[in-house]
User: Which sequence fits this backbone?
């Protein structure tokens, strides 16, 4: 049947457009990928109250052309908890600037002068007790924090996904012509 390549082409076009549209929605907006993990630093048999843990918050600028300026990161441990260390680790070429990270009492604060497109940072806090709360803000900037998921995966891997779709469609189209589907 001669219409199968037409349907494969139409389906491929619609799928490719949908992928590009969803990825562009993230890339074209001021989006930061945000994820956090908590890991125990010692044997799990130690009581929860005295078990030192690490909170790692990862930020990545997913937007294509948006630079965030003066991004403040504030981690605050609840009463009865403590924070023992606080640091920012950039992934090159990103840099954390010259502003010191401040750890005072139950809070850790850092000011990133800018986050360029595709820059990544790990904010790490060592604490005992309950997990600190995280606040990220930037005056004079609109910021959309998105968690890892479908949208973020599309935005980060758009080209590879589109290549796979075109390859699969070409293969399917070739099979349909060969087998007279």
Assistant:
């Amino acid at each position: 049947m001669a219409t199968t390549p037409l349907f494969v082409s139409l389906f491929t076009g619609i799928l490719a457009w949908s992928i590009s549209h969803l990825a562009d929605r993230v890339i074209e907006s001021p989006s930061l990928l945000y994820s956090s993990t908590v890991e125990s630093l010692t044997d799990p048999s130690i009581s929860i109250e005295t078990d030192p843990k690490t909170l790692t918050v990862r930020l990545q600028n997913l937007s294509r052309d948006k630079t965030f300026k003066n991004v403040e990161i504030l981690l605050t441990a609840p009463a009865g908890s403590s924070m023992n260390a606080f640091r920012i680790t950039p992934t090159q070429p990103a840099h954390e600037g010259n502003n010191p990270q401040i750890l005072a009492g139950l809070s850790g604060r850092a000011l990133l002068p800018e986050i360029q497109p595709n820059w990544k940072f790990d904010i790490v806090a060592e604490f005992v007790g309950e997990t600190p709360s995280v606040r990220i803000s930037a005056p004079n900037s609109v910021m959309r924090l998105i968690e890892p998921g479908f949208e973020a995966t599309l935005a980060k891997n758009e080209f590879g996904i589109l290549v796979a779709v075109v390859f699969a469609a070409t293969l399917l189209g070739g099979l349909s012509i060969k087998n007279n589907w």
Observations:
- The two ends are 5 Å apart (CA to CA).
- The longest helix spans residues 150-178.
- Helices lie at 4-27, 150-178.
